[in-house]
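W.,

You were right to be curious about this one. When I first looked at the sequence I had no strong expectations either way, so I just let the prediction run and decided to look at it fresh. Below is the sequence, 724 residues in total, followed by the output.
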Amino acid sequence: MNNALPYQDENLSFNERAKDLVSRMTLEEKVTQMLFQAPAIERLGIPSYNWWCEALHGVARAGVATVFPQAIGLAASFNTGLIKVIADTIATEGRAKYHESQRKGDHDIYKGLTFWSPNVNIFRDPRWGRGHETYGEDPYLTAELGKAFVEGLQGDDKKYLKAAACAKHFAVHSGPESERHSFNAVVSKKDLCETYLPAFRALVKEAKVEGVMGAYNRTNGEPCCGSKTLLSDILRDEWNFDGYVTSDCWAIKDFHENHRVTKNAPESVALAVNNGCDTNCGSMFANLLIAVQNGLVKEETISKSVERLMTTRMRLGLFDKPEHVPYTSVPYEMNDCSEHRKINLEASKKTLVLLKNEGKLLPLNRKSLKTIAVIGPNANSRQALVGNYCGTASRYVTVLEGIQNALNTQDTRVFYAQGCDLYKDRVEPLALASDRIAEAVSAAERADAVVLCLGLDATLEGEEGDAGNSYASGDKPDLNLPGEQQKLMEAVYAAGKPVILVLLSGSALAVNWADKHIPAIVQAWYPGAEGGAAVASLLFGEFSPSGRLPVTFYRSSEELPDFHDYSMENRTYRYMRKEALYPFGYGLSFTDFEYSDFKVDKDCVDAGEDIKCCVKVKNIGTVDSDEVVQLYLKDEEASVGIPKWELKGLKTVQLKPGEEKTVDFTVSARNMAIIDEEGNCIVEPGVFQLFVGGSQPDKRSSELTHKTVLSLKFKVEDTLKLDD
């Protein structure tokens, strides 16, 4: 570029250009660029930019976009390839919408390219309202899916980012929502490094995520958005993170107003910036000028933050000629296109988990079905399709509509009854309690089969302030079906017709009665705008379900530790003591699979060596299907308390009837390592056991699937301490 200033020279590195650009700003201008609503600096050619954008399961809060299944549903696919395709699709729509907004001079909130997704917090307690934003309870699964999302969203161009992902909420964050602005999550070094940090580490070190968002809470006394331990020692120094850090929204003011670790706003912003928080979702960083005047923050520290922010914007190509950036040519027509809707439907299908199918009630035979009743508060609910942090779909297909569409050419009568409100005791305010149950029973009595749609939606479980669940601030008080739903289910069941229960929820529910009485149960999560079509497709056998539970379904909230306790003792499948209702990793199919010839490449390895294993998987049933092959590892001689076993490998294979494939896994040294009480990562000598199959190696999974997973053992010699 002739006569270009260094920051305009596309031949220089982004770091060099950002450093030059920031050197030309006044202190006041630098501070304005650290606000999430960064104003234009016209003299330097910097347009205004709003950093706050969302893309949890589609471009969110910015108008029409493809609304994919909620994150917890995507996690149920156990499919990294699917997640990457979805994230790439989201980035395509993000680019299409961003460039169209720019052409219209619209630089508003949610219309940029710095997406504050994914949420890789660990869903440690099923009562947490925001759990459906996550990839579930397991660190390995969360890390693998999180990496795939980041890689898909950020693209594979060697120079430019397609969009900028952001790992949140760093760290040790999972409720209670009502206390998140003041709560101190006390966690051991072992649990921190074994459970709460691995996914963040993987996204930073392996997927090269561009951003990290701090959490509202304190962790071991330090507010996360100003934590020296988390932001400086671990993120920057240990993991060498060179991207930008943002606060959660209005989290900085919590430092002095709620956490009370600082006295006032200037002290709070100083604590955040001095420990590496670069931009503030909120307005507190307007106090940075006072903080500098009071000697609490050096201008050089502010300059470093702004350099990181400008580097991210440059990596997105926002300062370069459009023709030099490969993603600027994405047309607006790519947003919400038919191709993306097809991807969405296929994604929805892969998220559905078949929990029970007694007597092979499913799939239903359309030809013999003369009447069907679709009942329940979630049967015709758009809200139950989408979860939170969602965009606006141009078309929604509820479960009722999906079934109606599927039977449109059939001589089949579809009865519909709401049955009850989602959580109130009546639908009509002036009516008596249970005012819709009689109608539901009437519909059931006239049907050959009943599809009963119960569960939750994001008005009951979600973020504090967003969810209308006033009695629990977004969290669930227990694991029961709310309102009249249990009463409705029992009344419909008593009609004596075959019942298929479809649960639409973002978390586990203790459906013990249903497990005992209802012959078929499908966990549909919040399945996205095409969710009803996917559910209908499953019910009528157009595909075989392959989803697996990314969370444990407990029998009761009474068996759970205190919600405020962040110790992993007796939490999730890795440490729980009692038998699950439905275990992590569990899900049924319409076909059957046989595992054989499980072997490792060596029986003994030195500490630090990887081990390779393989297994043959054969479809011995009658229909095509995906199978989620899961590998678990158990250290039989660990020197400290460790999980009973842990997921360490997952692969999805597509198999036709009679087809067999060999599935390979590599178990790394880090996979074999234990975390000691000081947080050290150590490979110890001893005997290890590997399990492979379509589920966990637990007794309950074996009981539900009527199968036993394969296992073998190998030895590790010597000891090796890994870096981190």
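Here's what jumped out at me. Residues 544 and 590 are 5 Å apart (CA to CA). And, maybe more interesting for your project: The two ends are 43 Å apart (CA to CA).

Coffee later to discuss?

I.
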